[in-house]
Amino acid sequence: MEKSHRHHPNHSSSSSSSSTHFRSQKFRSNPTTKDGKFTKNNNPNAREDFVKPRRPSQQAQQHVDDSSNLPVLLGTCPFMCPVAERVQRERLRDLAVFERLDGNPRKTSSDLAVKKFCRTISIRDMPTSDLRPLPVLEDTLDYLLSFLDSSEHPFEVVHDFIFDRTRSIRQDLSMQNIDNEKAIYMYEKMVRFHVMSLHKLRSCTNENISSVHYLNMEQLTKALTTLFNLYDANRSSESINENEAEFRSFYVLLHLGSNSQSTGESLSLWFRQVPIPIIKSKEMCFARRILRFFRMGNYKRFLLTTAAEASFLQYCIIEPYIIEVRELALSCINNGGYKLHPYPLTHLSKLLMMKCLWP
């Protein structure tokens, strides 16, 4: 007899402790190199986390109209992975290292196996026994995020597992049209995972890590877009979700040093759709100042403001641009200073907010 899915502890406290430890190490003196840029793949990528926006475009409205005739699904699967998929993946030896029972690549259990993301899937042919209801999805997400602090495997291995399985969670939420406050809380957790991965992946040395960076950024922007639509769909009397300001600020910070729009919409147009209380929030004011300092080349204000006000997640997004700002500072000092007069190294280290290792 199958064992029903058990509840897993919430590991938000461990994420909080990691944030506290990290803030003391801002602007370390051995910055990593900036990620390479990639051209987006032209292959169609079906969006698995669609949520109807408040003012849908003509194309989006057509999608909603086409979907209105589809049956409303309510998942009944009590496990993190449907039984049929689990049996098939055991037979095909398609088990992640975290899903193997006693390390056996052909054996797993209901407490280890997690449903994989499937791109070619139809809502018309989806049995409800293969869809996980909201309580199971919540427990599955907490279980997946518990691997973030794992040191048994390299982070790129951990990321690959969580990356795929959270896409499957978003797919199950979308297919059941779950768009309540619990869905918001889950999406916030998944966005946090992708933002933290921006920082953690920079310390990885895998030769394919640049493509992993690109895919992580792609899913981050998709999850953010859906989260913003969820905020709007659940808004009443101009109320603001307690975490909305910080998550909205991520969108602004993702535009640092880039002329491309993260979600196909210009930043100036996006600001017009953001509620006034969000625009006036300290998180958004910080993001807008950082964007202004970066574009003006004001390296001193950029570094000081980031060190003093950035949250851990905001810093994860800003981090790669700190290298660029420090390079700008060195160029300004070199071009504007008197060449025959040595520049004090201790002064330079304070200006760039880097530890001076010179004896």
From TrEMBL:
Spans annotated as Disordered: 1-67
Segments of skewed composition (Low complexity): 11-22
Biased composition, class Polar residues, residue ranges: 27-45, 56-67
SAC3/GANP/THP3 conserved domain: residues covered: 80-355
GO process annotations (BP): mRNA export from nucleus
Xref: InterPro entries: SAC3/GANP/THP3 (IPR045107), SAC3/GANP/THP3_conserved (IPR005062)
Protein name: SAC3/GANP/THP3 conserved domain-containing protein
Source organism per UniProt: Quercus rubra
Lineage of source species: Eukaryota, Viridiplantae, Streptophyta, Embryophyta, Tracheophyta
